[in-house]
Amino acid sequence: MKTLNLVYIALFAALMAALGVAPLFMVPLIGVPITAQSMGVMLAGGVLGSKRGALSMTLFLTMVAIGLPLLPGGRGGFVVFAGPSAGFLVSWILGAYMTGWLLENSRWHPFLCCLFGGIVCVYAIGIPWVAFSASISLWNAFAGSLVFLIGDTLKALIATSIIVTVKRYKLVSPA
User: Fold this and answer.
1) For residue 35, what is the domain's CATH number?
2) How far is it, in rounded angstroms, from Cα 64 to Cα 70?
3) Of 80, 84, 81, 71, nearest to 128 (Cα)?
4) Which residue of 47, 126, 130, 169 shows the fewest CB atoms closer than 10 Å?
5) What is the pLDDT at residue 157?
6) Average pLDDT for consecutive 10-residue bins of the chain (175 residues)?
7) Closest CA to 152 of 33, 69, 35
8) For residue 30, what pLDDT is reported?
9) How many domains does the chain have?
10) How far apart are CA 48 and CA 55, in angstroms?
11) Is residue 89 part of a domain?
C-alpha cells in the first residue's frame, strides 16, 4: 500500500475519534447514542473511496476494540461490541464501503449515495442488533431508531457538500 493511502486511512480513523467528542445524548428506549460519527462513515467512503473508507472504519473499530476510549462518553474496549450499539458500530465498515462504491460505480447523486451507504446500510445492521441485544421487537427497535433519521439526513447533507468540494478541487488523490 502506498504511504499516502495509509495516511488517508489513519486520518479518517482520527476524524472518527474527533467526531466522537461531540456531545453525547443517549436515546433511552434503545440505548444507542446520538453522535456525529455517522457523518464520518459517509465522509470516509465518499472522500477516500470504498476500499480506503472501509479500511479507515476497520482501523477505528480496531482501536476501539483494544480499549482506546474513542466512542462518545469515553467508551472503548471489546465490551462495546456486546452492547446495543454494536450493530451500528460494525455496520460502519459496510456503510463507508457502500457510500464509496456507489460514488465510484453509479450515477447516483452524492446525497443519495450518502443516504444509502451511511443510513440504509447502517440501519439495516444496527436496528436488528438493537432488537436482539435489548430483547425488544424489531418494530420497537425500528421505531426507537427513527429519532436518528432527521439528524442523520442532515449529516448526509453536510457530508455531501464536503465530498463534492473535495472531489471538485481534487483535494484527495484517487486510490
Assistant:
1) 1.10.1760.20
2) 6
3) 84
4) 169
5) 97
6) 93 96 67 84 98 98 97 93 95 98 97 98 97 96 91 96 96 86
7) 35
8) 62
9) 1
10) 10
11) yes
- On whether the CB atoms of residues 39 and 155 are closer than 8 A, the answer is yes
pTM over the 0.90 mark: yes
Closest to 99 in 3D by CA, of 12, 39, 149, 17: 39
| Residue 174 lies inside a defined structural domain of this protein | no
Domain assignment present for 93: yes
Q: Which domain holds residue 114?
A: 3-168
One-letter amino acid of 138: L
Q: Nine-digit cell at 83?
A: 452492547
Cell numbers at 85, concatenated: 450499539
Q: Is residue 173 part of a domain?
A: no
Exposure string of 73-100, with b = 16+ CB inside 10 Å and e = fewer, is: eebbeeebeebbbbbbbbbbbbbbbbbb
Cell of 173: 488523490
